[in-house]
Amino acid sequence: MTQEELVEFAQQVREQAHAPYSNFKVGAALETEEGRIFTGCNVENSSYGLSMCAERVAIFKAISEGFRHFKRIAVIAETRSPVRPCGACRQVISDLFPPNADVILANLQGDLEVAKICELLPAPFDRSFF
Predict the structure, then answer these.
(1) Cβ neighbours for 80, distance < 8 A, ≥ 6 positions apart
(2) 3-state class of 77 per DSSP?
(3) Which of 11, 51, 104, 126 has a CB 3.0–4.6 Å from the CB of 74, allowing a cystine?
(4) Is 28 helix (H, G, I), strand (E, B) or coil?
């Protein structure tokens, strides 16, 4: 699967986002090592702390289906430059993906960047602290 195809999955699921408060719709698609694709969109709540980001929805769906080995993730939103995961999502991605996993960043204008999770979160809280 190409990066653009993974972004297309994220763009399609972005349309399902529940963002009545911010109107900021985000879509994400992750690819497992086995080649399965899991998607997620953001789901807002009037109590913002209970909202869930698209990246974590996709990751949690994959985990709930028994997958644990992730290859890469794409995220897309309507932004001027390619959107980046929030800090909470960076931490979750860092904890569950290999350090050199690709995070594909995109926007609706077709701009695309690829970053490694270790670049987006260079000093994560991880298992080395236990």
Answers:
(1) 107
(2) strand
(3) 104
(4) strand
